[in-house]
Amino acid sequence: MALKGKKVAILIESDYFEPEIFYYQRRFQEEQADLHFLTRLWGQSSLTFKGHEWHIPFECRESFEGMSDDVLRSYSAIIVPSGMVADRLRYPTDVHQLAPATELLKRAFAEPTILKGIICHGMWLMSAVPEVVRGRRAVVNNNLIGDARNMGIDFVDQDLVVDRDLVTARTGDHAPIFARRIIDMLACQ
To answer: In whole angstroms, what is the distance from residue 62 CA to residue 71 CA?
Structure first.
């Protein structure tokens, strides 16, 4: 009940890590968060994605495309999950523009009242805007350490790292400690 009235967004795409996403569904619901799964709908009313491990379908009906600043600021937290979600969401239609998900996160980083949670491979979404995370302390999946350092991130070899409004965790298997920290931080706001 600690999050009643708090809006939490979780980005979603194909190749999501099912245990992580299903954990968030239950855990944030248990805290009575107003939970929203957001994606790029490509003009569709909904899209169904398949998970990475068991290919479980997950339907999403909400888009972050065209989200106004007011709506963005209505979220208490935005979470970029593990797996290949970030890689799929960083696809730009026009190579001269940021992918909509990257643009959303760039705007969210300009709002210190929005907690940003990035786990495992999620930091890939920030690779086109390294200035947003440069100098921030964070952890990523072990095979992204070079990418993180190239973005100017101060890589910390821990399973969970908090740097002001940024919470990062090493892998999708760390979802319980990641979610716990986000819940605790939001409950104190």
So the answer is: 13
